Amino acid sequence: MNEERRRILAMLAANKISADEAEALLDAMTPGAVAASSAELAPHAQAAEPKYLRVLVEGHEEGHTGKVNVRVPFNLIRAGMRLAALIPAAAHGPVNKALREQGIEFDVSKLKAEDFEGLVQHLTELSVDVEGAYGEKVRVFCE
Amino acid sequence: MTLPPALLRLRVPARAWPTLWLPLFLLWPLLFLIFALAASCGVLVLCVALQVSLARAAQLVLSVYALLCATRGTHVDVVGARSRLLITVY
Fold first, then answer.
1. Which of A10, A21, A38, A120 is most buried as measured by Cβ atoms within 10 A of its Cβ?
2. Contact criterion met (CB < 8 Å) for A83 and B52
3. Phi and psi dihedrals of B49, rounded to 5?
C-alpha cells in the first residue's frame, strides 16, 4: 500500500473525511481509473457515430407494395472515396466524361484524401424524409 | 488485418427459391490467388500504360482490397410485385 492511500485511510479512520470522499480520492489515485472511465465513454462515443447509411423506399407497383431497403457501411463509402482519390490523373478525363454521361456533374480530380473525414462527418448528419402524394416514401438516414 | 467478406446471403428473384448462404470464406484461398494475379497485372498496366509510380500503383491495389473488405455489412433488399432480390454481405 503506498503512502497516499495510507493517508486517505488514516483520514477516514480519524473521521476527517467521509467514506464517499475517501472512495472518490482512492478512485482518483487508481491508475486504471482514467482508462476505465474513457473505456466507459468510448462505447457511447462509438454509438454516437453512425456505421451505416440507410436508404428506405416504399412505393406501389401494380397493386403491390414495393420496397427497397439498402444499408451501406460508412467504411465502404470511405474506402470508395480513398480509391477515387487515387485514380491516376490520366484517367480523370474519361472518368469525368463517363460520370457526365450518367448525369453526374462531378470532377474526380477535386477529391482530396484530407477532405474525406469532414465529408463523411457531414454525411452522418444527413436525414431525408420524403412522402409522395400516392403514399410513396423515401427515407435516407444514418444509423 | 481486414478480411474480405466471409458469408453472402443471396435470394434470387424467383420467389420459390430459398435464401442461399454462400460460404465465401471457403473460397478465400482461390480468391486471394486470383486477386494477387489481377493485382500484379493491374500494377504492371498502371506503371507501363499510365506512367504511375510503383508505390502509387501498390496503394491503388491495396485500396481496391480495402474496398472489397469494406463491403462487409452491405445489405440490399428489393421487393417488387413479382420478384425479390436480397443480398447481404457478412
1. A120
2. no
3. -80, -40
Instruction: Provide the percentage of residues in chain B whose pLDDT is more than 90.
Output: 47
Mean pLDDT of chain B: 88
Query: What does each C-alpha distance from A39 to A2, A32, A33, A47, A53 come to in angstroms?
Result: 26, 10, 10, 13, 26
Categorize the per-residue pLDDT at A56 as very low, low, confident or very high, splitting at 50, 70 and 90. Answer: very high
- Tell the burial category of B89 from Cβ atoms under 10 Å away from its Cβ (0-12, 13-18, 19+): buried
Interface-testing mutation among A64, A86, A120, with chain B (most B C-beta atoms within 10 A): A86
Of B60, B71, B80, the CB nearest to A66: B80
